[in-house]
Design goal:
By secondary structure, this protein is of the alpha+beta class. The protein folds into two domains: 99 residues, Glutaredoxin (3-Layer(aba) Sandwich), CATH 3.40.30.10; 115 residues, Glutathione S-transferase Yfyf (Class Pi), Chain A, domain 2. Helices cover 62% and strands 8% of the residues. It has ten helices and four strands; from the N terminus they run βαβαββαααααααα. Strand 1, helix 1 and strand 2 form a beta-alpha-beta unit. The protein is globular and about 55 Å long.
Length: 226
C-alpha cells in the first residue's frame, strides 16, 4: 500500500488533527515539513493553491482541506471507525467540525492563538491586546456553544472518539496555553475535562508541537548526514 505523506508545519493545529487521526488508525506516515515562510512559494502553491497546511499525499492522490483529509482517512482506513454510525450523531459531528473551521478558528484561535503564541514564539512580536479583546466576545460564544454540545458526554458525539474531537482538540489545546483560557472556560469544567482526556491519548502525546518539531529536526539531521 502507498505511503501516507503529510505536509505540515510543526505546531499547526490543523496539521496535528491529521497526524493524530493517523496515529489513532495505527497507520505509518511520513512527515514532509513546510517552512512557514514558504507557504506562498511556487512549490507549495502547486500542492495547495491557497498556501496552507496540511496537505496529504497517498500514492498519486493529493488532498488538501483538513476536513476532507480526515474523512478520507476514516474511509480509507476502516478501523477504528471515527464517524458515528447513528445518523444524528454523525450530523452532530459534521456540525461541530464546521463550528471548528468557521467560528472557533476564524476570528478566535487565529487571532488569540497567533497573538499569544505564534507571533511571539516564531516572529518575536508583541501581542496586540486590542485584537485579543476584540476577539473575546466571539470566543465566549463559541466556548458556550461547545460546552453545551459536549454536555456530560465523554466525547463530543457520545462515548466514542470521533473526527470532531480530533479536529477540535488541537485548537483548544492551543488556546489552553493562553491567559484567556481561564475566562473562556469559566463555568465550563466539562471542556477542561474533555481536553485533558484528549491530551492523555497516545495520539495526542505523539503529535505535540515539540514532538513534531523534534521529528522534523531529526529528519533534517539524517538528510545532512546522508
Amino acid at each position: 500500500m502507498n505511503e501516507y505523506l503529510v505536509h505540515v508545519v510543526p505546531g499547526s493545529p490543523f496539521s496535528r488533527s491529521v497526524l493524530a487521526t493517523l496515529e489513532e488508525k495505527g497507520t505509518p506516515y511520513r512527515l514532509v515539513p513546510v517552512v512557514p515562510g514558504t507557504l506562498r512559494s511556487a512549490q507549495h502553491l502547486s500542492r495547495h493553491p491557497f498556501g496552507r497546511v496540511p496537505v496529504l499525499e497517498h500514492g498519486d492522490f493529493r488532498l488538501y482541506e483538513t476536513q476532507a483529509i480526515l474523512r478520507y482517512l476514516d474511509r480509507a482506513l476502516a478501523e477504528p471507525a471515527l464517524t458515528p454510525a447513528d445518523p444524528r450523531r454523525a450530523a452532530r459531528m459534521d456540525q461541530l467540525m464546521n463550528v471548528n473551521d468557521w467560528y472557533l478558528f476564524h476570528g478566535v484561535a487565529n487571532v488569540i492563538g497567533f497573538q499569544r503564541i505564534v507571533g511571539p514564539r516564531l516572529m518575536g512580536l508583541t501581542p496586540d491586546e486590542a485584537a485579543i479583546a476584540a476577539a473575546m466576545p466571539k470566543a465566549c460564544t463559541v466556548f458556550d456553544e461547545l460546552a453545551g454540545l459536549l454536555g456530560g458526554q465523554t466525547y463530543f458525539t457520545g462515548d466514542t472518539l470521533s473526527l470532531a474531537d480530533l479536529l477540535l482538540a488541537p485548537q483548544l489545546d492551543f488556546l489552553q496555553q493562553t491567559p484567556e483560557w481561564q475566562t473562556l472556560t469559566a463555568g465550563h469544567p466539562n471542556l477542561g475535562r474533555w481536553l485533558a482526556r484528549m491530551n492523555a491519548r497516545p495520539s495526542f502525546a505523539e503529535t505535540t508541537w515539540t514532538k513534531v518539531a523534534a521529528k522534523v529536526a531529526a529528519m533534517a539531521q539524517a538528510a545532512t548526514a546522508a
